[in-house]
Amino acid sequence: MIFGCLLNLIFLLLAAKKVLIVYAHQSSGSFNAAAKDAAVEVLTTQGYTVDISDLYAMNFKATATAEDIKGDVKEAEHFRYSKETRLAWEDGRLSEDITKEQTKLTEADLIIFQFPMYWFSVPGILKGWIDRVLTSGFAFTQEKLYSLGIFKDKKAMLSFTTGSPESMFSPTGINGDMNVTLWPLQNGILHYCGFQVLAPQIFWAPSSASPEARTSMLEGWRTRLQGLLEEKPLSFIPLDGFDEKGFQLKPHVHEEHASKEFGLTVGVHLGKPIPPNCMMKAGS
Prior knowledge:
Layout: H1 2-15, E1 18-23, H2 31-45, E2 49-54, H3 55-58, H4 81-91, H5 96-107, E3 110-116, H6 124-133, E4 155-161, H7 178-191, E5 196-197, E6 201-203, H8 211-225, H9 251-256
Parallel strand pairs: 1-2, 1-3, 3-4, 4-5, 4-6
């Protein structure tokens, strides 16, 4: 009886956790759809509440324009999207499609971005979601950035397919190091807003893989999903490692790593080799 009560308590605690999947693929028969469906099934079975923003099905508007603001803008002749949407957010005048997504994000403990990699980045419709939903004030301020960011208590991760095999995204491959490709997305967007960034789930070239290989990829994803929310996030330099004037690395931090073989991160590498897999595996 006690064991049963404990199980019920654990289930209730898990049920309080919410996951948002921002999904960007046109086809329900795609590998990305299968990855999204696997996440929904496994996480729901564990007791998590899962919400999905299917951007193509929603016909989500990708362009950031003055139409995102209800009523008049403050400076029509010199329209600045970031400033105007900040004011509109403060006044509750953002368009309904934006506020709906912001509500989903606010309620979520984990956000999974599921997409096919387009031109070394995200599809345009997903970039539009980022541009329009992560507005100034709501997702970041000058005072609340990076490790002190607004979403520092939330986790986020990228789950995506590539068109090229893993070898092409290696430090010696023609596409270059995947860690470098991921830096703008994981540091410049997710970590910038304060998210604890989980290691990405990368499905290497499923379109050219055998059916058995694709099945194996999905099984690996299902296994990872079992303990996803307990994973340690990727490491980034905390904000207090930089000065407040020019956001330059503080001298003592620089000195502490002067004799190290590798730099600190992809972006702050100190002229040294980039730490291996620092954007792909926690603890690397």
